[in-house]
Design goal:
Chain lengths: 81, 81, 81, 81
């Protein structure tokens, strides 16, 4: 689940392997681009960490972040089901 | 399911939308590159058609195609579950 | 260059290898999704064929297609430079 | 250029926008998967930071990392040319 701390909305995701993790990232990339709101994220092998906050709002968590988080969860839930 | 006709192994796949179709294609692209064996494929919106045959074997269906088909099915089954 | 025939705007693109072709497709996919207008396209190894027409306008070439063609050219020109 | 510090080989890459950054990441993902050696990397908007080290060799920089770095540079040089 997402944790809000230090003005960031954060969640870690785990996948079977690198290819599945990157397929997840590809779908998230499309969602982010469509929203015009992009994540801070990192990946190593099958793990993806995402931190959401809004640069244009002095780096706090805004509704843009909460909306993107919901979209990311929907992508993950479908992939991981 | 895959149909074998005219020396090609063919299957049509359908997804919710373009982004999901392209995420499928991304995973298939990784599998193909890893096998060193690439599909003939087309996409329009949420539909992907794949035709497999082996150029180096006079354009007939070989074990390389059957192996890639199995990998593609596994990707699809997981995405569409 | 793009050729307009049979109410389709068509162009063939060639790349060094499959990975470069698929990287091109990924960028085109983002452009298409952003425009809400998607190509009919096919790929085999290092070749990509794109056909543009507008389903909602009785399958003729419209300004939506011409706009997407310009975006695709910009992606290709940068990749192939 | 790559900097080696704290047993990591690191480089920052900058692109025109998010889509170009993600297209770069897609090509790097293919190279990494082909090598069976994956980066630690992060992205925010048009910036990508990559850190390479070898988990199986007690987290130091090995030839696997140097080889992947060369492949990543070739991808970047072509995209950014």
């Amino acid at each position: 689940m997402w944790i809000e701390e230090n003005n960031q909305l954060k969640r870690k995701f785990q996948f079977v392997d690198f290819v599945e993790a990157f397929a997840f990232m590809t779908q998230v990339a499309f969602a982010a681009e469509k929203q015009g709101h992009h994540p801070n994220w990192s990946n190593v092998y099958n793990q993806v960490e995402i931190a959401l906050f809004t640069h244009d709002a002095n780096n706090i968590v805004t509704d843009k972040d909460r909306k993107l988080a919901v979209l990311i969860d929907a992508i993950y839930d479908k992939l991981a089901s």
